[in-house]
Amino acid sequence: MKAKTPGSRDEMRSEYNFDYSTAVRGKYYRRIMREGANVAVLEPDVAKAFRNSAAVNEALRSLLRISQTTRRLTSPSSGRAASPRH
Fold first, then answer.
1. In whole angstroms, how large is the CA radius of gyration of the chain?
2. How remote is the C-alpha of 40 from its chain's centroid?
3. Please, what's the largest Cα pairwise distance for the chain?
4. Which residue has the higher pLDDT, 52 or 80?
5. Of 1, 10, 28, 44, which is most buried by a Cβ count within 10 Å?
6. CB 42 within 8 A of CB 56
């Protein structure tokens, strides 16, 4: 590791100084909401399993398909008690 030279500072370069007084809070919020963008933060262990957002979407769509298939297999009760078999 290099030793600091006497003239070096711990400050960022001038081009990285940002004037936060001109920042606009939520500048893109309405556009993002209108376009329907959703953001989900994955836990690190889950994120390791997926290489990109397309892989996450593919896995979730597969889960939805399985869920819909399972739902069709288990139809709701008709509300009538089953007749006893003798």
1. 28
2. 2
3. 98
4. 52
5. 28
6. yes
pLDDT tens, position by position, 4-57: 565 566 677 888 888 888 888 888 888 888 888 788 889 999 999 999 989 999
- For residue 85, pLDDT over 70 is answered with no
Taking the C-alpha atoms of residue 75 and residue 69, their distance in angstroms, rounded to an integer, is: 11
DSSP assignments along 28-62, one per residue: THHHHHHHT----PPPHHHHHH-SSHHHHHHHHHH
Nearest to residue 38, comparing CAs of 50, 23, 56?
56
* Residue found under tokens 């893109």: 28
Burial of 50: CB neighbours in 10 Å, binned 0-12, 13-18, 19+: middle
Q: Which residue type sits at 70?
A: T
